[in-house]
Design goal:
Helices cover about 35% and strands about 20% of the residues. It is built from 4 helices and 8 strands; from the N terminus they run H-H-H-H-E-E-E-E-E-E-E-E. The strands form 2 sheets. Strands 3, 4, 6, 7 and 8 form a 5-stranded antiparallel beta sheet that branches. A hairpin with a 2-residue loop joins strand 1 and strand 2. The two termini are about 45 Å apart.
C-alpha cells in the first residue's frame, strides 16, 4: 500500500511536526547512535525554524496594522481616531542561529534513523516519520491531458500519479482516433510535422502493470498550423 510523504506541506504544520520529532527523538537518540552534539544541532534547527516562522507572522501582522494606520491618517475621515501602533514588535529571545538547510538536515537524520538496525515501525510512528497509508482506486483513475505548442511541435502534458504510464490517442482533425504512443514519464512530444491548419484532439487512459485502468481522459484540443 502506498504511503504519503511524512513531512507536512505547510510551514505551520512543519513546525508542529519538528517539535514532536525532536522531543520524541530524545527517547531513542542513544540507541540510534546520535551524539549529544548532533542532538543539540537538531534542536537548534527546530528552535530557530520556529522562531523565524513566528517572526514572519508577527511582522506580517505588524505590517497590516501599519498599512491600516497609514490609510486612516491619509484619508480620514476627519475626526476618526487612528489608534496607536507600537514601534517595534517583540519577538522574544532569539535562539542559536543556524545555517540554511534545516529541512534537508532533518531529512538526513530521518533517513539515518530508518537505516539503523534498531529501527522499528513503532519507533517510526512515534517519531512521525511514517506517512499515512493511501488507497489508490484503479477503477477511478483518470488522466488530464494538456496539449501545448513547443518548438513547432505539440507537447502533451500530463501527471503520472500512481500510474505506470499513459496510453495516448490522437485525432488529426478527420474524426478518426489513432494510437499515438505510450509515455512512462511526463511529458509526451507529438513529433508529427505540422503542415496545415487543423485542430488536433488528444485523449488518454492510464496504464498499470501494462493494463488500462480507470477512465479515458476528457478530450483536449489544440489548434495547429
Amino acid at each position: 500500500m502506498a504511503k504519503e510523504y511524512y513531512m507536512p506541506r505547510t510551514d505551520e504544520a512543519k513546525a508542529l511536526w519538528l517539535a514532536n520529532f525532536i522531543s520524541k527523538l530524545l527517547n531513542y537518540s542513544v540507541g540510534l547512535g546520535f551524539t549529544a552534539a548532533e542532538i543539540t544541532s537538531l534542536k537548534n534547527d527546530v528552535a530557530y525554524f520556529s522562531y523565524i516562522l513566528n517572526a514572519v507572522e508577527v511582522f506580517t501582522t505588524a505590517k497590516e496594522q501599519r498599512v491600516n494606520y497609514k490609510n486612516v491618517l491619509r484619508d480620514g475621515p476627519i475626526g476618526k481616531i487612528a489608534g496607536a501602533v507600537s514601534d517595534v514588535p517583540a519577538l522574544g529571545t532569539k535562539p542559536v542561529e543556524v545555517a540554511p538547510g534545516i529541512i534537508p538536515r532533518i531529512a538526513q537524520a530521518v533517513q539515518r534513523i530508518k537505516n539503523s538496525p534498531v529501527y522499528t515501525e513503532s519507533m517510526g510512528k512515534d517519531l512521525g516519520i511514517i506517512g499515512a497509508s493511501t488507497v489508490v482506486v484503479l477503477d477511478e483513475m483518470q488522466p488530464i491531458l494538456k496539449p501545448v505548442l513547443k518548438g513547432g511541435e505539440v507537447e502533451v502534458q500530463w501527471t503520472k500519479g500512481s500510474a505506470d504510464a499513459v496510453y495516448i490517442e490522437v485525432d488529426r482533425g478527420n474524426g478518426v482516433w489513432q494510437f499515438l504512443g505510450i509515455d512512462m514519464n511526463p511529458h509526451y512530444t507529438d513529433e508529427m510535422p505540422i503542415t496545415s491548419h487543423a485542430t488536433w484532439r488528444y485523449r488518454g487512459i492510464y496504464l498499470k502493470h501494462d493494463e488500462r485502468v480507470g477512465y479515458w481522459s476528457d478530450v483536449a484540443s489544440i489548434a495547429v498550423g
